[in-house]
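Quick one: structure tokens for this chain, please?
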Amino acid sequence: MRLENILPFVHSLLKQALKPDARALDGTAGNGNDTLMLARSIGSGGKVWAFDVQEQALANTRMRLEEAGMADRVELILDGHENLATHIREPLDAAVFNFGWLPGGDKTRTTQAATSVAALSAAVSLLEESGLLVAVLYPGHEAGFAEAQAVEEWAAALPQQQFAVLKYVFTNRQNRPPYLLAIEKLRQK
């Protein structure tokens, strides 16, 4: 056995949650890595919604999807993820948020605590029973630290009868390493 780093672990969790014809959300499209993994996992009958506020991020994602022949499975949305409920009316099987900044982009343009918590709240309300939401947090920079604290407070307040929340972090890594919160919507009896 080998402990997986954060992003490979995120992808393995999402692949387990997604079946053909699934519906998924990428709340932070970035360069399209998570979006492409979701598109591959849902099959030709599924759908992915991918959000970003930066046109460059959506252009990068579109190019990655087109190169892989997966663009028809994804709706790219130029809007803040906090507005996702105005664009998505269907239940979700999975959602991913990889917070922080656009890799290779302007590091002063980061996701923010208030809009991220609003987006997470909207996403969990759309989750199907047994649906999975994963959030990667980056507390190593000032905005990321505040965001991580706010997201953890929000996640800790989710009712345990309805949600299971897992924190996956390498505690012996230096400089406040990134970590994952995985939230499963439990089946109601």
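Strands lie at 23-26, 47-52, 74-78, 92-98, 127-137, 163-168, 179-185.
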